[in-house]
Amino acid sequence: MNREPSLDDRLEHPVVVDGDVIRTRRLTLRPWRVVDAPGALAIFGDPDVTRWMAPALTVVPSLVAMEALLATWRDEAASLETPQGRWAVVKTATGELVGGAALLLLPPYRVDLEVGWHLGQNHWGHGYASEAGHAVAHQAFLQGEDEIFAVVRTNNTRGCATALRVGMEWVGETEKYYGLRLNVYRLRSGDLDVSADVDGALDPPRRPTT
Predict the structure, then answer these.
(1) Topology of the domain covering 7-191
(2) Which residue from 144, 118, 134, 3 is spatially nearest to 54, judged by alpha carbons?
(3) pTM of the model
(4) Looking at the predicted structure, is the pLDDT value of residue 201 above 50?
């Protein structure tokens, strides 16, 4: 008897969602802990990481400030509705913290869900950002969401390439979010794990021809 392929049938990259923990081949995404502060400071205390965030996160200046921010994220997590969340991204094999990922409502209307990823510089170039972004997308679609978005600064070629590797489609530029001009990428549930053409992904996006 033929049947339509399920979401899990279509997955090229295995993802396991266990409560508030998401696992992939190489990574575990779990809630942030205050004891993550030293590793988190190496990420969010680095201006070369925070300047690409939208909006840019002020560089976290100290371990004490990082601990306070992680405590805030931990406390805010209780009020977030599924599938929203913030996750520490660690290597499953070693437990080493490599970055963070988030799925949160975009201001000002708080209707569209935004996926974000932030990797420490020492871990750039290994595909961890796209793997984490894919994992967050997967858990969102399992929870019944139809689409998610990413917003990327117009000169952030690395972020644009990562969005494409997650499988997202560039849909244009906007100043709707955060008061910034941003590239907007969208991923629909039916397009998860459909191979994306990333040739030229490091070039600025061009408006689709009509």
Answers:
(1) Aminopeptidase (3.40.630)
(2) 118
(3) 0.85
(4) no
